[in-house]
Specification:
The complex is a heterodimer of chains A (338) and B (558). Chain A has 338 residues and is α/β, with parallel strands linked by helices. Chain A has a single domain (10-334), classed as Rossmann fold, CATH 3.40.50. Chain A contains nine helices and eleven strands. Chain A has a nine-stranded mixed beta sheet, sandwiched between helices. Chain A has a two-stranded antiparallel ribbon with strand order 7-8. In chain A, strand 5 (193-199), helix 7 and strand 6 (219-230) form a beta-alpha-beta unit. Chain A is globular. In chain A, 45% of the residues are buried. The longest helix of chain B is centred in the C-terminal third of the chain and has 30 residues, at 440-469. In chain B, 44% of the residues lie in helices and 21% in strands. Chain B is α+β, with helices and mostly antiparallel strands and 558 residues long. In chain B, strands 5, 6, 12, 13, 14, 15, 16, 17 and 19 form a nine-stranded mixed beta sheet that branches. In chain B, strands 1, 2, 8, 9, 10, 11 and 18 form a seven-stranded mixed beta sheet that branches. Chain B contains 18 helices and 19 strands. Classes of the chains: A alpha/beta (338), B alpha+beta (558). Chain A binds chain B through residues 62, 64-65, 69, 72-73, 75-76, 79-80, 83, 101, 104, 121-126, 142, 145-146, 149-152, 308-310, and chain B through 19, 21, 43, 47, 174-179, 191, 193, 389, 429-430, 432-436, 439-441, 444-445, 448. Chain A: Its main location: mitochondrion. Chain A: Keywords: Magnesium, Membrane, Metal-binding, Methyltransferase, Mitochondrion, Mitochondrion inner membrane, S-adenosyl-L-methionine, Transferase, Ubiquinone, Ubiquinone biosynthesis. Chain A: Belongs to the class I-like SAM-binding methyltransferase superfamily. UbiG/COQ3 family.
Amino acid sequence: MKPSRLPKPASRAIRYHSAQRHQRLYHASRAAFVSAAASTGSQSSVNPDEIALFSRLSSQWWDERGEFQMLHKMNPVRIQFIREKLLEMRREDGEDAASADDVLKGLNVLDVGCGGGLLCESLARLGANTLGVDASASNIGIASTHASSDPSLNYSLSVKSTSPAPTSRGKGALTYEHTSAEDVLATRGPRQFDVVCSMEVLEHVDNPRTFLRNCADLVKPGGHLFLSTISRTPLAYLLTIFAAEHLLRLVTPGTHTYAKYVRPEELTQFFGDYRSAPESRPWISRLYGGVPTRTEAETRGIIYVPWKGEWTLVPRGAVGARWGEGCNYLFWVRRPLE
Amino acid sequence: MVLRNSRRRCLASAAHPEESDVVIVGGGPAGLALASALGNSAEVSKSLRVVLVEAGDLSKIRDWAPAQNSFSNRVSSITNASRAFLKDIGAWSHVQLDRTAPVEEMQVWDGISDARVAFSAAEMMTPERVALDEMSRLVENLNLQRALLRHISSMPGVSIVDRTKVQSIEKEEREGNGWPLVHLSDGRVLRARLLVGADGFNSPVRSYAGIESYGWAYDTQAIVATMNHHPRTAFEPPNTVAYQRFLPTGPIAFLPLSHTSSSLVWSTKPPLAKALQASDPAVLAGMINAAFRLPEVSMRYLHNRVLEAHAGGSTLLSDELNKEIAWREQSHNVDPRTAYSVTALSRSAPGGIPPAGSDLLPPFVTSIQEGTIASFPLRMSHADAYVGEGRGARTVLVGDAAHTIHPLAGQGLNLGLGDAEALAHCIHTAVRNGGDVGSYTALAPYARDRYFENHKMLSAVDKLHKLYSATAEPVVWARSVGLEVLNELDTIKAALMMSAGSARRTDPASVGWSVAASSLETVARSVNSAKSVGDTIVGLAGATAQGLLKRLSNSSRP
């Protein structure tokens, strides 16, 4: 716990009160994250209340000016991060000729908690064979309906077989399935996907450690795990809950739970301890000043710029880049080769 | 039988609409530039199918082969920023350059006060502080369209469907948000991921999108024509100067095309435009020469003569007009040794020592090229939005479908090209990020880039037009003493420089700089040339101050 990070209101009484409240929240969420770690992977990470909420909202997924407009606007930045990171790693692996245009082409990608399929459609257009899974049946229904109206997507109904095959049209195959990460792991087994994404999901699950472990197990050796979530900071509370839900009503109140937010350093720490097998090296082998090397993992803040109406990726090494991770951020980690 | 056949075809194809990613309605410069920009990008053409639909016959433009000295009457001033865009997309190399002319200098003056600003390319700087060699380039619209068509013909990703009308646009019946279905006159139906309205002022795409447009018709008609004139002599600057005089009836512009040809854009009152169009081309030539030279009072008189003759069912004869001009010149004491004397110019042979002031005025017009006189009404309009929403989703407007502007700053086509550039950029970004190019999210940056930018230009030009057509006493008085005029002429300059001054549109900083610089100049020049008025004021102020000092010194004395 770092009291220096707490806000400093003028009045002592308020300070005491808010500090206490903050500590309580902090402890509660810390406890959730830690206790989940103690338990084993048999637990479900799916929260029924969360699923009910998103099912109610599912019809609005593709209303670009409605409930999910912020996610629509965030989508290009997520894709940009994924593309840049994959390209960087391909060049790191010695593929100098790797082109930015088709860096996703032919990869098997899993999107956990795909919602209305915002990210899946983009991934599929860029040539990835994409499987989108969601614990809400109505989300899957909306995603399927939307994809089937778009001829640029090579969409097919869910087949519980192995990963979808690439097609002649050069577009990646797109499949949706009403299931959870643990069921994908149970039915298809580990090490299935080149890339596993889970965007804005971590803050909605129970047992985040189980969830992360399931996602991690699904990644092929040398493959990539991309996450985006919200950090547990006063700033994040102010922006994502107080402003977005209560003040501006951009998002339905109750969408976010502060205690479930996860800090970047908690993810770094998790993968610093996480090993694919007991004898293998952890996914993040070393930290420099609390930061992993760029070939193992990376955190990038994303910030909404209201006057541009766009999200933007905080530039690497920018002044206050750490501060930029204080609210929404993207996280990438690579599974070591075995 | 035929009818039933076509009906069946219609129904059959309605069942199977053709999937298209970008459907551009309208084969004007903006639509063609967009198609060509999209087709030029390998990334875009790999993943998007682009179709351009045009009602007219584009093969006529593609095969356009005019004689060397004859020029089309629709000419546009292509700014450096627009040219940079056309070069970037590879279309500029298809423009027949020997049919274009650079504008190296501009002379703009007021019809009542004769207050004048001149500005040249040399004064304008690129962001790298390099002087430009030309302010803009005059290009026949047909030359540009032909270049774009030739460029597009080499692109497999873009198909052009001409001699085909858009019969109707309807929204697809589908759960969620249906896509626009474009019914063509040949029976085909295109299902459009993105429907682009490049279909002009009465845009059917705009009405489908449910986007309102606000604006007003000016009580003004623009006459265009191609003029033949004397070549410039070795003692004069070459024919690379554009001239524009602001008469109370509207501005008259002289735009260079070659040594002996230039283009006319004369905005004037509709009855006068009608009368001029109906009269002998020689009379129009005479009126053009007079309109750049005679005092405003006499121009008003000549206008009335033309109108009276037209109302009487006859037309003014060329000789009668020349006599009138000669008489007016005499009464105004116009020196026949200067370039201001139409009569003297008409008698002198071209060449030799040019008369005094010839660099301040356009060359003497000898005749009008046959069949080039035309006119069209002017209006200002701006769509409420550029991107459709709700029922009108998956639509976007460019060019005249989004805005129309008075031609006095020569910006209409450039705004359209700017739209095409921004939209193509936006589509490219969306494709790169795997986005749906018809989605609002993908198109929002286009509207953000262009709407305010275009609005600034539209309102500046609208304001100028209103100022110059105003007849209210104080405005006219302010104009006649040259106070307001200098400020406003500088607004024109700023408007022209806004796009001309930056070598590239994607460099907003440079625009800010040139405008800031020009407003500084305004201050300097206003101070300078309002001298006659200023001297008096300074004198008065000085006298008052002196008096005050005297009194103070007096009172301080015991």
